[in-house]
Amino acid sequence: MADIQVSPGWKELADSINKQKGVVVILGAPDTGKTTLAFCLARELQLRGCKVAMIYADVGQCAFGPPATLGLSVLGKLETVPTMRHDSPGPVFLEEIKIHSMYFVGCTSPMGHLLQTTVGLKKLVETAEGEGAEIVVIDTSGFVEGGAAWELKFQKIELVNARHIVALQRRQELEVILSVHEHRTCRTVHRLKIYEAIKLKSYEQRRAYRRQKFLEYFQNATLKNLPLKEVRLINPVNILPIEGYINLYKRLLVGLNDDENFTLGLGIIEDTGPKELRLLTPVEALQKVKIVRFGAIRLDENWYDSRVKLPSIHLLKLPPITLRKT
Prior knowledge:
Rossmann fold; Elongation Factor Tu (Ef-tu), domain 3; 8-stranded mixed β-sheet; globular
C-alpha cells in the first residue's frame, strides 16, 4: 500500500479500538477517505493479533464486490504476529480481499432502499460475529445530508450496536449525526481530519467506476436458464410476459440468493417466460439459488447502470410459486 497516505492518528485509533473491541462504524461524506481508512484500520488490528472482519456498506462505490450489494470479508487472526509487516499473510491491497458473504440491496443508492440496507448490514454483522470476529469495521456510504441520511445512520449505529463511531469531516457536516452519541457510555466518537490531497470525484467518474466493477464481475458470465418452479421471487411486479410489459425486465439486475437470503451472485435478465428466467450470470451452482430478488437498476449493453421505475401491476399467484410484493 505504498500509494496510500496513512495518518499518524490512524494508528492511535487502532490502539484505542484494540482496547475496547466491537463494531466500528466509519462515517463521512463522499471522497473523505472512508474506504482507505477502513482497510488500513482492519489491517492494523489484524497485525495486532485481532480477528477482524470488514463490511462495505456503500452500494454505489463499493470497495470490493459488485455494486448494488453489501459485502463481508473476514480477514481472520494471524497465528503469529510478524515483526516485518510486509511479510505478513492476508490482503495487502483492496483488490486482494475475498468476499465471505454478500447481501443484494438492488440499487446503487440507499435512497428508496433504506430498509434493505439496514437489514443486510445487520445480517452481515451477525455473520461476522458468528465467525468469531472480535472487531467488525464498517465502511459506510457518503449519504450523510438530510433527514433520511441522518435517520439511516442513526438506525445503522443502533442496530449493529456500534462501540466506535469514526468521523471523517471537512467541516461540521457530521455533527448532527455525532451529537446524539457524544456522551453515551456505550459509544466512543472519534473525529479525524481528512487527508487534504483527496480529490473529489465527479458524477461521471463515479458512474464509470460502477461500470468497471460490473464489467469485471460479469466478464466470465454465461447465459443460463433458471426454472421458476425451483425458486421464489421477490419482485415488484408480475414477470408474466404480458403484452406491452415484456421489455421491462430486459437487462434488469437481480440477486441470486440462497435459502437464508444471502446473495450467491448477481444475474441480468435476458428473457422471461412462464416457466423460466434466462439470465446472464457467473454463478455456476444455480441449484443453490432459492430466492431471486429483482433489483431497481438496469445495465445497458455498455454496462452502465440506470435506475428504473416499474409500473404497478396487480400481482398474480403463479403455481407453484408465490410472487411476493415488497
